[in-house]
Structure formats: structure tokens, C-alpha cells
Design a protein that fits this description.
2 copies of one chain form a homodimer.
Chain A: H1 2-10, H2 15-20, H3 35-52, H4 55-69, H5 99-116, H6 121-137, H7 153-164, H8 167-179, H9 207-224, H10 227-243, H11 275-292, H12 295-309, E1 327-328, H13 343-352, E2 359-361, E3 365-368, E4 374-379, E5 385-392, E6 399-404, E7 408-416, E8 425-428, E9 431-432, E10 441-449, E11 453-458, E12 463-468, E13 478-483, E14 486-491, E15 503-505, E16 512-515, E17 524-533, E18 545-548, E19 555-564, E20 576-577, E21 580-582
Helix pairs in contact in A: 3-4, 3-5, 3-13, 5-6, 5-7, 6-8, 7-8, 7-9, 8-9, 9-10, 9-11, 11-12
Chain lengths: ~575, ~575
Amino acid sequence: MPTQYQQLNITGRLANFARETGKKAGPFQGLYFNESDVYKWLEAAAYVFADTQDAALAHLVRDVVAKIVAVQQPDGYLNAYFIGEKTKLRWFDLKDKHELYCAGHLIQAAIAIDRCIGENTLLLAARRLGDLIVKTFGPSGAHSKGVPGHPEIEMALVELYRHTGDTRYLLQSTRFLENRGQGVIGGEEYYQDHLPFRALQRMYGHAVRAVYLNAGAADIFIENGDQSLLAALEAMWTHLSKYQVYVTGGIGSRRDGEAFGKDYELPSQDAYAETCAAIGKIFWSWRMLSITGDAKYADDIELTLYNAVLAGIGLEGTSYNYSNPLACDSMHRRQPWFAISCCPPNIARLLASITGYFYSTSDNEVWVHQYAAGTCALELLNGNTVNLQQQTNYPWDGNIRIQVNTEAKFSLNIRIPGWCDSGATLKVNGITWPEHIHPKSYCKIERQWSSGDVVELNLPMPARFMSANPGVSNLKGLVSIKRGPIIYCLESVDQEYADLDRIWLLNTPEFSLEDGQDVLEGMKIVLANGLVIETRESIEDDSLYAYKESSTPPSQTTRIAAIPYFAWGNRDYGNMRVWIRQI
Amino acid sequence: MPTQYQQLNITGRLANFARETGKKAGPFQGLYFNESDVYKWLEAAAYVFADTQDAALAHLVRDVVAKIVAVQQPDGYLNAYFIGEKTKLRWFDLKDKHELYCAGHLIQAAIAIDRCIGENTLLLAARRLGDLIVKTFGPSGAHSKGVPGHPEIEMALVELYRHTGDTRYLLQSTRFLENRGQGVIGGEEYYQDHLPFRALQRMYGHAVRAVYLNAGAADIFIENGDQSLLAALEAMWTHLSKYQVYVTGGIGSRRDGEAFGKDYELPSQDAYAETCAAIGKIFWSWRMLSITGDAKYADDIELTLYNAVLAGIGLEGTSYNYSNPLACDSMHRRQPWFAISCCPPNIARLLASITGYFYSTSDNEVWVHQYAAGTCALELLNGNTVNLQQQTNYPWDGNIRIQVNTEAKFSLNIRIPGWCDSGATLKVNGITWPEHIHPKSYCKIERQWSSGDVVELNLPMPARFMSANPGVSNLKGLVSIKRGPIIYCLESVDQEYADLDRIWLLNTPEFSLEDGQDVLEGMKIVLANGLVIETRESIEDDSLYAYKESSTPPSQTTRIAAIPYFAWGNRDYGNMRVWIRQI
């Protein structure tokens, strides 16, 4: 939080507000949607406050909120760019100017602050802005056919409805969704505007836009129960999982347009896989999980979080990746900030709210979706509070001990991850659970719980090879290493032979584990046997082609060390590969 | 010749001439530079006549020539497109409209007909057109700064000078070269117009344009001895060979712009490698060979001819490739003709004149550049005629017997190909040549020859692996098979396992040979040991990623059959690879 706040200051993102109230001179700084980073930071700060009760942070939040609300216009309009000399351009370019996107983030921040800090200054401003949006984009508004070029307002308005009970916000969110695909903003795939929402059967265009849109549509379904929306969402999620996702859970493979590619278009070196797209997919999968209770969505959240998202932030916690290649030969370093800096505060708000993705509740059931050491107090709809304690070194170890510290009758639904396709065992108070344990599902334990009852889940976690569908032509003959939910990678700094294209994994790798050292402390390193293949490196000429004698020793064995993919690029410069040749 | 003549007829290329003289009605057919195909066909027909004395072909040539000369304008202008209603557009778009390109091909055809058939009707027309070009583009002409957007006229004008002795044509060719790189036609790399010619140190832009330009510049150097031209040509040739050429000799790797890519940008599947670009490189290398006597240029002609060019024509001789990928997964078939059909008649004129690339002569020396069974009578500058007979099954066998059927003192320079890097032996009348035999050079045998003297050259020709410089990242860990000058490839139709990405060659391949059958009759097939690698093909699900168990048998051995690359795509549909994984 402090380093990002510094960046908001340094880069003029905060000054842009002060400028509008005459407190600072000079031109607007940076891009027209820069304020969205301020709102996302505020949202993250609110979540952090909920955990830490950090008074200094709350003070900072108050200060930033004051700057924001000071620029709200008499009619409720609030945006740091489209005021002053630019007032006349309001709502003029909905396709590309991100006004409703910024408004959405303002609303989400306002709700988070109200919920976590208990202060409603920004919420009042957000409601006035929301009311203006409803008036402007409602049936009799000046822009009744308006479509936001970058989805985000959809989720925000549904949440504002949930927080306030004002159905106008829900209806307006629905209206934005229904206006799409009519060509209002040009009908381009990039904007998911080439088809009406219900006709989408796969992911198209700009990846972040696409998953934000789907998360918003899922929110709308949750509130209005329109099954045709759910059908489109499920079709898209299924297609995405079969054809368009990286082994890390990352999405949006194409740099050009930050977009989804064709089916099976999943290049490694040129992977775009924007951090924000992975985060948006978690938003979407979380809503799908809430709707369906299908464990595949919890699996996806886990995979995406530990791999595609975590790779987006440095181990020191203050540097970020915008794109996340699966192979790299450049002098890669994460950056403290970007000109378009959507990813850093997006990681912040996801990680600061991550505990919210661990459990779900209903009238008298609890779902345990994710595993990590910690305690929780969960309020059921029937009014009972369930206290749980998880003890585990997950994801480095598959032993999870859940102690129930509540006397009550309820069902505890324990997720058996899909990655654990066999051997999972469950014990309740030391007695093996009598039913079959199905991977990628929840094991339902319904009983009268006594305080001190213990559920022990054991998930065998050997290192294993993953292979890709042969449709992904660039991955033929290659494998990646996965252990539990963690995808591993090779960095040249760990290998005896630095050229990763010369290293092939053996089919019989004799995997073993080692504890990570220094910045990798706490992680498990996977060791394996491989071959170093003789290549042209050994030919001392610069000719383009040369004979390769078959009398040359073909290869020598070598010990390979693989580190968690999310930890790549944190040490000496070197190359990286997730996918490795295998013999 | 007959099938191409048919295409010239069917596609309206001949009718376009008749149309202008009122003999046929209707609009101009096809693209504005279509007549260049007619001229190239005529040039090829003249060369064929020189070998065959085919009276029917000569009759056809006369008929086509009559059609062409009938449209020549009073001022000498001759073009089937820019006359009639388009007269006012003459010389209007030198950058893109190929007028001077067409004129160049007309001139080359005219010279070939005069030389081979002994008829000068088209030559007279070509001289009148050449005179108009000299007048229009000369120092006091209306277009004195003109630059041809597609080089070709440069070579043609130098040859017209050689054929007529009129130095104005040579000077005009030089003028076109000197006008380049001044931004006259926009200064784009695509047109080799971004730099003055002497500043070019590598190949840029459209590949065919680039090699035609260089062949023209080499012709100019041969006549005017301007060393600064030669320096640029040598720098470009060296850079091309080190960074921009396929193992087949093909060039112009990038489909976009039919262009040279960056250094080491040599994709296999997406290789463009236009047939015309390979042919143009032979034109250029031939001129470099004539200038320097350096055997590397003869090596390049051989490699490019047997691989990059021959792949451009079907084994039946009537179908063609425009681009020549080095890997293919599509239902590939050569085509009888194209809308832009530069390649078919270009192959025709190269193959019909191929004997012209076999020998060079000087005052009292003979150079034997290429090997194939045949006889020749070579006139030396000192007036002697040297009769030679080659007996060989080259390129399928490295034994070459050259019998001298002349009594004279002269030097016979025998090329030792660069591909034969050791073991070559030479005997003269059964006695081993006492000096060391250097690959990629000429062995000079100076003596008083008696009729019946025999030179025996033996070039060991084992099948061998080629590897690429590690700079070509997509070829790391891959090998190709080469035997003598022939590059081999795998077609799925010949393998036990059709998926070529599952086949890896062994480091100890135990190569053996087999005679080709059916359409491959006369060729040598290379057999080798390989592995069939277990891949996801064997996993019966459609998931994007799945565990790959290391208990699976990793591979099984298989016998692989490789065919000459030039013969690919002539049998059942299937996939093809030049570069294969190797363990």
C-alpha cells in the first residue's frame, strides 16, 4: 500500500484531483483513466484496514477520499479528466474514454470503504454519481443506448444495488449489458460488441474487457436469475478452459489487442497473459462458483491465483508484471509502476481481499474452497457463527487439518482439488471418511459438530509432468512440471547448463524436493533428471548451417532444478521456460 | 512450354495484345504486368529451341512476337496495358506499375530469340523501346530521375548493350541504379530505396526485387568495373549467407511484403521463400561467380537449384509453387498457374538455360562448375574449341568422369563442392592428383590434353545431419538431412507414424539408401533410425492440459524414410518437415 500510494503521488494521479479544485496548477497528468488506479488503491486499502485496523492507512484513505469528493459536480458527475475545459466532452466517447470504467472503480472503492472502514463519504458521492448514470443512461436518458467500451460499471452497479437496495442500479447494469452487440460502439470483437451477449459462445477480443464483462453478467444473473445469461457464461467458460487458457491459468495470449487468440493459440515466449486478465478471470470464476457450487471454478481460482496472478508481483511485493510470458530470453525485471498501471492496484485489491475467496456459506452449510493456515468466523444464514481453524503448509504440502471450534449441526463441504486426481483421503476425528472421495468436487460432511472436532484432509502432492493437447502445436513434445496447484519453471540461473533449449527432461525424472533458499525460502524446489543435448553451441563457427556429426556424444545427464513459476525473474538475469522438451 | 502457352492463352495474357490492335474486343484481362509472363515464356522458348530445333515451337514464338510488335507505338513505346485509353498514364507510376519491369523482360526475350532462333523482329522492337527509355530517362529526359519500382530493366539494358554494342543502354542501366535511394519513389525498404545502393550492407525488403537489383548491379560492375558496387554486392551476399538464407538456398522468409526478415528470422512452417526469389539469387550468384571465380557462388547455384528452385515445380513439370515452406501441415498442392504468375515462366527460362550455368571459359581456361551427364563444345577466347563429356549419375552419386575430346593445352578447373568437406579425390588418366584437394574451390589441372584424356572426380556422398546456428531459435535441437547437394525432408506418407512431430531422429541414425519408386524413380531415398515419441495423441480426452505419467513407455524405435525436399507434395496429401527433432 505505501509504495503504490507513493506512485499515485509521483505520477500525478492524486494531483489530477487537486488540480480541478484549484489546489494545484498545471496540466492533467498521464492518461485520461489514471484515476481508476486511485480508486483501486482505495479499495485495496479498505480491505487491508479490515485486517490490520491500521489507523495511519485509514487516515490516508480519508485524505484521498476528500480530494476525490471535492471535484464532484453539482449534478453528481465525478471524474478528474472530463471536467474544467473538458466538461463538454462528457459521455462523448463511451467506446474508448473509460468514463464509466472509472465510475465503476469509484463505486467499488466507496462500497469497500463503507464496509471495511465504516465511513460513507465516498459512498455518498458514489451514489450521486450512480444516480446521474441511471438518469443519463436510463430509458429516457440522453444516452439510453450507451455501451461502456471497457466493462467494469456492470459489476459496480450490481454491488451498489446489493449495498443500498436501490434496484435502479441493478436495472441500469442490466441495461448496459443488453445494449451491447447492437453496433452502438461500432460492433468490434475487441469490445465484445460484435454479437449480443447471449450469442457469445467463446471468448473474443480484449481479455480484460471480456472477463470483466462476464463477471458483471454473472452478477446480474445472481440477482435476476436470467438463465439465458448463465447459459452463455457456462459456454464461454467451458470453451475458454478447453482452448484458450495457459497452463498457469493465464488468459489473453495475443499481445496485439491484448486479446484472446484463436483456439489453441497459446504461444509461450510471446504470451501476453496480462495480470489483470487473470485477476478478472478470478472475479468471474468466483461468481460462477457462487452460482453453481461446481468445484472446477474453485480449482481455477486456485490455479490462477498461485500462478498467473502471483507471477505478476515480485517476491519483495513492490514490483509488477503487466504481461506474463511462459518463456523468456530477455533481461526481464518487474517494474514498480507503468504508464498504464492497471495491474499493480488490481493485484493489491485481489490479494487484500483474498480471504473472501476461501469460504462460502448458506443457511446451514459451509464450503471450504481454499487451503491456508488461518482462522475464520463464518456467519450462516441461520444465524449461527462457525469458527474454523486451518493448520497446513499448503500449497507446499498436502496435509490440511481443519478444527471446528463451534457446537452446531451444519454441513462442512471440503473441496477435493481437481489436481489431486487420486489418493486423497479424509478423516473426521481420526476416522477415515467412508465414502469415495471425488476429485474436483466437494466432500459433504454433515453432522452435529463438537468444538474441537478435527477434519484431516491429505492430498498426495508428487511433482508430475503436464502435457498439452496436441492442438497446441508449439507445445508438442514438451512438458511442464506441476506439483499440487503450483506450476514450475526452469530458470537458467539454477541449472548447470544455462541454455534451457539444450535441456531435456527425462521420462523417468526421479523427482525430488529441496527447500528454497534466500528469496525462495519457504518454497519447495523440484529436482529432476535431464539430459543436456549437444547443439550447435559447441560448433565454433558463425556459419548459418553446418554438418552435425553423429559421432558427437549426443548428450550427458544433468540435474535440473525447477522453481515455482510465480517466483521467476526475482534473482539474477537469465532465461526461463515453463515448457521443456522431454525424451 | 505447351502447358504454359495454354495458360497465356486461357488467362488472356496473349489476348491483351490482340485487343490493342483491334483484333479482339473486351477489357484488359488480369493484372497490369501480365505481359511479363509472355516475355519470360518467349525467352524460355528460345532457349528450348536452341536445344531442340523444334520448328513448331519456333512457329509459336513467331506468332506471339507478331502479336507483340503489332502494338508498338510510333515513338517506340511497347506495353499492352498502358496504351489506348491508358496512354496518358505512361511512366506515371514507376514505383508500382512495373512498366520498366515488363520492358526489361521484353528486351531479354528479344535477345534470347535473336541469339537462339536467329530472328530479330522482337529485337528491333526492343531496341526502339530501349531507345525511347534512354530518351525518356536519360539526363535530358522528362523522367531523368526515374527509378523502376521493380528492378529488371537494369539486367536487360546491360545485356542489350552487350548484344548491340550501344553504350547508351549501359549508361541508362547505371543511371537507374544511381537514381535509387534518393527518395524518388518514396524511400521505402520494400523497394530497396531507403539507402543509396552502395550503402546497402544486407538484404532488405521485397526479396525478388532485391536479388534482381543486385544481379543488375553485378552486370553493371562487369561492364564498368566500379569497385564500390562490387564491395556492396559482396557485403550483401556475405550477410545473406550468414543470416538470411534457408538451408535449401531459398530466401525471403517473410510472407508480409514477400520480404527478407530480420537476421536469423527463418521460420519453417511460415517460410515464404518465393520460387522467383531463389531464381533471382541464382542470377545474382552466377554474375558473382563470373566476376570472382569464387567456388562459393557455384555451390550456392547448385544448392539453390536442386532445392529452393526445383521444389517450385511438380515432378510432372506442369505445376508450380509460388512459396516454398520448409514444413507443411496443410493439403498442399502445386498449382498450374497463378493470378500473379511470375514463378512458372521464371522456372521455365531458368531450366531451359541451365546448361549455361555449367561451364565458364577464358583465354585458355575452362571452369567446370556443375556436374551432370552430357557433352559440350566450349569456345575459348584464344579460338580453340574444347569438347568435354561428363559421365555421372550426380547428384545421386559422387562419381564424375570427364573425358576431354580435344587436343590442346589449356587449364581445366574442376569445382570441389563445399558440401564435400573431406575425402574428395581426383585422378587424371588414372593417376591420383598429387596436390591437396580443397573443398569449395577449383582444382586447376593445366596440361597439354590429348583426346581421350579422362579426369575422374570422386565426391564421397554420405547422408549427414545439418544443424542451424543457435541464433535461429526455432531450429534449436532440430536437424535436417543432407546428402551431397540435396536437402531431404520427411513426408508423413512414407512413415510408419504419420505425425511428424512425434518422430525424432537418433543421433546414431544408421543411414542407408534406397531407390525411389514410382514418381520418385531415379532418386535416392535416405533411411534412418528414429524414435516415435509418446505424446498427448495417446491421451483419449480433449482436455487442454493433462498429467503425463512417466511410467508410459517413452518411445519406440521406427525406420524413417526421407525424400529429396524438391520432390515433396507430389504424392498423397500429408505433412512435411525439413527440420526434425533429434535426440
